[in-house]
Amino acid sequence: MKSGVVAEPTLVLRSPPAWDRLSRATFRVRQEYHYAYAAPIHDLRQRLLMLPPEEHGGQRLLERELRVDGAEDMRMLSQMDRFGNVVYHVSSPTVRTLELELTSATCDFPS
């Protein structure tokens, strides 16, 4: 099994922000996971804990989207755990490669 996570920062600041005058900041996060198996995997059951709760410590989750490719007859269910985290359950009868991409996960940090 081969997997990997690549972080590509895209934030470029010409000068530091004036933190004392900043009332809001929005952060966009993109996570990708790629799995390639030597032989087909049968009865895949993947549990993904990838997002924070809807609200936590003054932070608010604004939007989320999960894309899954490579799984045949895939089923996906999202739910909240007892801590309020978003948990995805992905299952498929057969998988040779699996790509998971969480796009548009945006958190708003009000002051």
What secondary-structure arrangement, pairings included, does this model have?
Elements: E1 26-51, E2 55-56, E3 59-71, E4 75-80, E5 86-108
Antiparallel strand pairs: 1-5, 2-3, 3-5, 4-5
* Biggest sheet descriptor: 5 strands, antiparallel
Estimate the global geometry from the Cα principal axes: elongated
Strand segment count = 5
Radius of gyration: 17 Å
Beta content comes to over 45%
Please, what is the average pLDDT? Answer: 77
**Element pattern in H and E:** EEEEE
Sequence stretches where pLDDT stays below 50 over 5 or more residues: none
Instruction: Give me the secondary-structure category.
Output: mainly beta
Helical segment count: 0
Distance between the termini: 43 Å
Determine the fraction of residues in helical runs and give it as a percent range: under 10%
List keywords for this structure.
mainly beta; single chain; elongated; 111 residues; five-stranded antiparallel sheet
Structure commentary:
With 111 residues, the chain is mostly beta strands. Strands 1, 2, 3, 4 and 5 form a five-stranded antiparallel sheet that branches. The protein is 0% helix and 63% strand. The termini are far apart. The protein is elongated, with a radius of gyration of 17 Å. The model has no long low-confidence stretch (mean pLDDT 77).
